[in-house]
Amino acid sequence: MSGIAFSDHLSLAVAVRSAYKTYDNEHYVLKGLNLSVPENKIYSLLGPSGCGKTTLLHCLLGRGSLNAGRVVLKYRKISEIGHMPQNVALHKELTISELFLYYGMMFNMDEETVREKSRFLLKFLELPSDQNRVVDSLSGGQQRRVSFALSIFHDPKLLILDEPTVGIMRRGKLLAEKDPLRLLEELGCEYLEDAFLQLCKEDELISEEADITPDLSYILPDKHSGSQTVNYDTPFSMHRFKAQFTKNLWMLRRALLITLFVLVLPFVQISTFQMATGADPIDLPIAFVNREMPYSNSHCSNLSVNIFSDCFMNETSDVYLSCNMLGTLRRKKLKLIEYPTLDAARRAVVKNDVWALLHFHENFTNHLATRFNDGTSVRNDTIEMANIDTYIDQSNQLLSHFIKTKMLQTYREVMKMAFDTCDLDPSISRLPIKFMDPIYGSENTSFRDYTGPSMLSLTAFYIPVLYTGAMLMFEKDGGLLERIMISGMKFSEIAASHFVIQIVFIVVQNFGSMCLMYTPMFFNSPFEGSVVTTYFLLLAISLVGMLFGFVIALLSKSQTDAAYFGIGCNFLMKFLCGMMWPTQGMNHYLQIFSYFLPITLATDALRSLGSRGWDITHPDILLGFGTTLLWIPILGCTAAFIMKKKSNWFE
Ligand SMILES: Nc1ncnc2c1ncn2[C@@H]1O[C@H](COP(=O)(O)OP(=O)(O)OP(=O)(O)O)[C@@H](O)[C@H]1O
After folding, report:
1. What is the spatial distance between Cα 505 and Cα 262, in angstroms, rounded to a whole number?
2. Which residue range is the domain that position 644 belongs to?
3. 71 - beta bridge partners?
4. Do both 397 and 512 map to the same domain?
5. Ligand 1 within 6 A of 23 CB?
């Protein structure tokens, strides 16, 4: 555009006409503001805190829109604009030279020019000559000068500095717009602060005569059509992508410990999980009262071998099956403690000294023999006396389940030995349910084998959420994102540079997690299926996690918001993906909802790949892939929608 002649004769660099801006449709920050900045001039705005200076500058930069009025800039290309934000907004982990190179790359400057410029600006702005100084180690003033240096690094034609100096603004309008010296002269003041005070007093008198807040509602529908601010509508550029990618690598190297922590976090989680779950409890204390034998352990231990020498059903037999059962339970790593009376043993359970109490009646073995011998004519009191009365502390469901399983196994093993010695078929003693060889999995499938795939998918999902969210929020929180976006960086370039680094992370992490989980060298969980399919399913889950991290960062105002959001969703996923309990047991509607989440059916698919040996051709595995991959367009569109609707998403 050749000059902006609203009314002035001068060619204007910036013109604002009748600008109105409100954040809440009630209070106006800008109220019909007019402003003209001639070319080749330094124009300063002075005004109290909160009067709207930053708001105005945002509208000039096209980062905020006016409710009404018009902004026209003569220079609209990003490369023609320099901007220094109010706060320092620097990547403080980088060195001075890295920071200059980063912005140089962003503006497509060659390395030699960057070096020359850096040398000149460091000298000109009296900054430390050692360019390898980390920005964080500079003083506050030096950091501000570095910030200024970056805003003029690419020789902009229009420089916008958000730092109040001269120019007089109050209550959303300009009180005066003149050369400072002329203003001082006209008002007869020595300092601009005095001039400002005098203008405010005059404004106060006018305000008393007429309330200056007019009814502006009629203005709002007009919007700010016709504004011509900075043109951010540039295509994806490789040099900005390279700048962001290189900067991310520098940041990762600088925060090496954190980087390594994020990299190994899945391995730590999976190893901890594998070591902490699934194994049988050892030395679980169990009380017993054995009325079949006199009170004392030692009697029993000498007699328990008799089971192989004599049939317990012989009338003259001195086999004591209670002793065999106690011996077998001991070999199953239960810590058996004998009590003299039932009362004493019960008290031990109540005090939680033991987890269960086993009570063998007098002549337990004889009664058991009679029970099998008498068949249908057996008396009730014989049945009672042939029982092992078992009292369990059911407050811990997993431990009580463990004790019951050990009891049943012990009964089966001892009765098999006893019946074998009697030359009888041991199946007489069994329940009339026979568990044949499992179709999938093994008899020894443990809780760990069940939860393992959930752990794998949750880790594959959540580490990218954490990392992506944290990276984006870090730049957003410090105003860095806003600054680089004003310098022309596009979200697609930020996302792509992050994506490339994150892909390396997830490729390594998922490979390592699978090795840890399934190889004999480490935890050797059962795995029958296709390694490649499993690996690609994990990559798909991680990809969705990464996108979810982007969406969380776009929606959150601060790192705290993002952390709450992330943790909340983590719990939701954990409970709904079937990690704690099979989804089949869920409330019906919740179950349907859970199937639409990105990792629920994928976790089921991982479980089937591991224990059933299915492959990609099986409909359940395809469904696992489908529900996960479906989230890629959903989250992609959500991110695009948020960015379109929330113009200040990067603030
Ligand atoms: N995103 C926002 N949402 C709601 N209100 C806002 C927003 N940004 C600014 N405001 C309000 O608009 C008014 C002007 O704020 P602005 O930041 O433009 O002032 P300023 O003149 O730059 O102040 P300072 O000199 O303290 O930086 C303030 O009352 C502020 O609280």
Report:
1. 9
2. 240-275+446-650
3. 16
4. no
5. yes
Pocket of ligand 1 contains residue 55 by CB under 6 Å? yes
What's the structural domain count of the chain? 3
Does some domain include residue 394? yes
| pLDDT 10s digits, 185-238 | 887 877 766 776 777 677 666 655 444 444 444 444 444 456 788 888 889 999
Domain boundary among 429, 457, 483: 429
What is the distance between the alpha carbons of residues 33 and 20, in angstroms, rounded to a whole number? Answer: 7
Nearest ligand 1 atom to alpha carbon 64: 1
In whole angstroms, what is the distance from residue 39 CA to residue 14 CA? 8
| pLDDT tens digits along 329-357 | 999 999 999 999 999 999 999 999 999 99
Distance 30 CA to ligand 1 centre (A): 10
pTM of the model: 0.84
- Whole-number Å distance, alpha carbon 52 to ligand 1 midpoint, is 6
Q: Are residues 418 and 535 in the same domain?
A: no
User: From the CA of 185, how far away is ligand 1's center (Å)?
Assistant: 31
**Residue found under tokens 């410990």:** 257
In 3D space, the residue among 517, 514, 574, 507 whose CA is nearest the CA of residue 546 turns out to be: 507
Domain containing 371 — which CATH number? 3.40.190
Helix (H) or strand (E) holding 284: strand 284-290
Look up residue 21 and give its DSSP letter: E
- State how far the Cα of 537 lies from the Cα of 515, in Å rounded to an integer: 15
- The ipTM, to two decimals, is 0.95
- Which phi and psi angles does 46 have, rounded to 5°? -120, 135
Determine the Cα angle at 644 with ends 641 and 647, to 5°. Answer: 130
CB distance 289 to 357 below 8 Å: yes
Tell which one of 22, 28, 29, 61 to mutate to probe ligand 1, the residue whose CB is within 8 A of the most ligand atoms.
29
Q: Which residue type, as a one-letter code, is found at position 95?
A: T
Helix (H, G, I), strand (E, B) or coil at 433: coil
Q: Does 50 sit in the ligand 1 pocket, CB within 6 Å?
A: yes
Atom 10 of ligand 1, nearest CA residue = 23
Q: What is the pLDDT of residues 579-592, one digit of tens each?
A: 989 999 999 999 99
We report the CATH number of the domain holding residue 66 as 3.40.50.300
Assigned domain for 155 exists: no
Say yes or no: CB of residue 29 within 6 Å of ligand 1. yes
User: How far, in Å, is the centroid of ligand 1 from the Cα of 23?
Assistant: 9
Q: Whose CA is nearest to atom 13 of ligand 1?
A: 50
Burial of 408 (0-12, 13-18, 19+ CB in 10 A): exposed
Tell me, yes or no, whether 462 and 580 share the same domain: yes
Ligand 1 centroid to Cα of residue 20, in Å, is 14
Residue in 21, 22, 55, 161 to alter for ligand 1 test, most ligand atoms within 8 A of Cβ: 55
Residue 616 lies in a domain: yes
Amino acid letter, residue 84? M
Q: Please, what's the b/e burial string for 283-310 (b: 16 or more CB within 10 A of its CB; e: otherwise)?
A: ebebbbbbbbbeeeeeebeebbebbeee
